[in-house]
């Protein structure tokens, strides 16, 4: 605000009144004393801008004061002040200081004699608190301002350092900075499923009048409701997640398509259509006032907040948030295991769904065998409802268990990755007829860099004490495809899935001395400077193969 000579003398009067009051030690209330003392350092204070949203940073237990006055010549004028706490609850109040009428008579006549003004300061002036509030809700004060008054806003945070936004306006005839809320700003939960919640809310008057400049944004999380978009942004930043520097959470429609999901994960932000459990996400859906939130976890409580956002000013208003708990997931279908039979299960990692298998023992000793084909799988085994084993499976894993006849064993399988996983399961009481071959200490394939040539490579792998068949396969691969090939490879698939041209050789070998159970093979007829992926398959008595870990080797470019 521009400081006219009128207001200059008003402030001079207030300063002199405060000085006199201090020197005479006149009794005063704490709020009055704080107001007058602050006037000594008025040049350190700030005038609050009219018609603009101001961000104010508060230090713990240190009050901060802002002032505002009206333009000269307006006897009475309406004004509104909106304060939005962005974190913890704060205390704020509005104080008004009215100068004596004699001062304004002199000032209006243009009498700028400081001696005359110094006499007028002896007349009593009135300092009063017209509003105060404590909390973390968005609060708006509406009042009428007098031209003979100076207003002060005082803010205090007693919990920790924080920040707030303040919006002052004396123009109540033009459009609003903040979108309007309906008379009933509550969210209604109109449908609940196992992985979905459907919400509805009444339209904002602003959305009905200015559809092209208004949109609704929905915030979903598992912790609590937020009373403002500013508070939600602060909470996400404090958790260490990164937000776009210029848009924060109130996204522009040019940067976020309708019904797309903002996912915050691993301290980075991406816009995708899937969400993991426990993360904060925001969906902006234009001016639709109903929305079904997808991809939720069963039997989980979620908190929902809807904000109506003015895309021109980036200002927002919050509906009254709600919460809902998704339905429990129905019991998965139980697969009955038969003695000696292999079952392959594909698990949906997106929903982290459990699969249950059941087996009733016909012998006292049984053995479970698990072969991980793809992804990561956690196995949980119970006997008569008591846990006997629980761990993540890697490669081939055996569990030998002892119990009683007709004991009931249950196996729960769960993918620990977002992508699909696959695993083979077998239970058998015939230990002397193993389904899978005996494995070496390591399933790694080793290559010898010094033995590489332009058209050949030499690889080696470990064997066992049993006579077994080993088959080697190769295929050309691009360097940027290696990681994806290794990650997506089905470790349960055998050579039947390979092309005949990829087969290199098959051989039998074993050694009673495990220290010498190593074989090497030089593969010739390769192209120079080319990357190859080599696989070795081990076959046991039953004919079911076990695949060694793939090895990528590149031939020399020049020899």
UniProtKB/TrEMBL annotation:
<keyword id="KW-0677">Repeat</keyword>
<feature type="domain" description="Fibronectin type-III">
    <location>
        <begin position="179"/>
        <end position="316"/>
    </location>
</feature>
<dbReference type="Pfam" id="PF24354">
    <property type="entry name" value="NDNF_N"/>
</dbReference>
<dbReference type="InterPro" id="IPR003961">
    <property type="entry name" value="FN3_dom"/>
</dbReference>
<dbReference type="InterPro" id="IPR036116">
    <property type="entry name" value="FN3_sf"/>
</dbReference>
<dbReference type="Pfam" id="PF10179">
    <property type="entry name" value="NDNF"/>
</dbReference>
<keyword id="KW-0732">Signal</keyword>
<keyword id="KW-0325">Glycoprotein</keyword>
<comment type="function">
    <text>Secretory protein that plays a role in various cellular processes. Acts as a chemorepellent acting on gonadotropin-releasing hormone (GnRH) expressing neurons regulating their migration to the hypothalamus. Also promotes neuron migration, growth and survival as well as neurite outgrowth and is involved in the development of the olfactory system. May also act through the regulation of growth factors activity and downstream signaling. Also regulates extracellular matrix assembly and cell adhesiveness.</text>
</comment>
<feature type="domain" description="Fibronectin type-III">
    <location>
        <begin position="437"/>
        <end position="545"/>
    </location>
</feature>
<dbReference type="GO" id="GO:0005576">
    <property type="term" value="C:extracellular region"/>
</dbReference>
<dbReference type="GO" id="GO:0007399">
    <property type="term" value="P:nervous system development"/>
</dbReference>
<dbReference type="InterPro" id="IPR019326">
    <property type="entry name" value="NDNF"/>
</dbReference>
<feature type="signal peptide">
    <location>
        <begin position="1"/>
        <end position="21"/>
    </location>
</feature>
<keyword id="KW-0964">Secreted</keyword>
<keyword id="KW-0524">Neurogenesis</keyword>
<protein>
    <recommendedName>
        <fullName>Protein NDNF</fullName>
    </recommendedName>
</protein>
<dbReference type="InterPro" id="IPR013783">
    <property type="entry name" value="Ig-like_fold"/>
</dbReference>
<dbReference type="Pfam" id="PF19433">
    <property type="entry name" value="NDNF_C"/>
</dbReference>
<dbReference type="InterPro" id="IPR045805">
    <property type="entry name" value="NDNF_C"/>
</dbReference>
<dbReference type="InterPro" id="IPR056225">
    <property type="entry name" value="NDNF_N"/>
</dbReference>
<dbReference type="GO" id="GO:0008201">
    <property type="term" value="F:heparin binding"/>
</dbReference>
<dbReference type="InterPro" id="IPR055271">
    <property type="entry name" value="NDNF_Fn(III)_1"/>
</dbReference>
